[in-house]
Amino acid sequence: MPAKDTGTEELIRSTAKKLFFKEGKLHATTQDIADAAGMNRSAVHYYFRTRDQLIALIFAESMQALSLRLGKVMSAELPFREKIQGLIEVFTNEMMEYPFQEVFLVTEINTAGHDLVTKIDEGPVSSFLNEIEKEMHLGTIEKTDPKHFLINLFSLLSYPIMMSPIYRQFFGMNEHQFDELIAERRELITRTMFK
Q1: Mean of all residue pLDDT scores within the chain
Q2: Which CATH class is domain 1-49?
Q3: What does the alpha-carbon distance between residue 108 and residue 151 come to, in Å, rounded to a whole number?
Q4: Could you report the per-residue pLDDT of 35-54, keeping only the tens digit for each?
Q5: d(Cα 162, Cα 24) in Å, to the nearest integer?
């Protein structure tokens, strides 16, 4: 049996990721992926037997990559405020590049079940929650369950981008104008999270 061409496999993965995460085509078929990659559908099936296998791989890679980037910031030896600014930067950059990634991930978790999220490293999050609690005792942020702080932070980051098609229409903005608005939110979110 001939060896599989890793370049073709990567082209299929990156094309699927672009369709799902960048263009928001969450229901793209293997034929859609093949067409966008400039190949026939049998090639997609040769490398990834089913659409579900391709989705599972893309999901796992995306979750792991984002988890690693966020974990790196959470465990960095930086003052707490700088860590928050780092999280805002990493998360916003990721969401701006792949605006439909969060919608895709949530959709897949709801469709395929919680088995998809078993490989997330909870260590950095657990340690970061302790750090949040220390900051609360110092009085730099509002006292509450530290989980609320993280939920609020990620909500402020993800919701506006997930809703961008509606907000652009609502505010009469083009994509560039909306991107500028999101860039302004980086500092606004930092100020919102601290006293």
Answers
A1: 89
A2: mainly alpha
A3: 20
A4: 999 999 999 999 999 988 99
A5: 10
Check: CB of residue 13 under 8 Å from CB of residue 60: no
Domain limits, CATH 1.10.10, in the chain: 1-49
Which CATH number applies to 59-193: 3.40.50.2000, 3.30.499.10, 1.10.357.10, 2.40.10.270? Answer: 1.10.357.10
Q: What distance in Å separates the CA atoms of residue 70 and residue 171, rounded to the nearest whole number?
A: 31
Q: Could you identify the residue written with the tokens 């969060």?
A: 102
Per-residue pLDDT tens digits for 86-120: 999 999 998 888 888 888 888 877 876 666 566 55
DSSP string, 93-138: HHHHHSTTHHHHHHHHHHHH-GGGGTT---HHHHHHHHHHHHHHHH
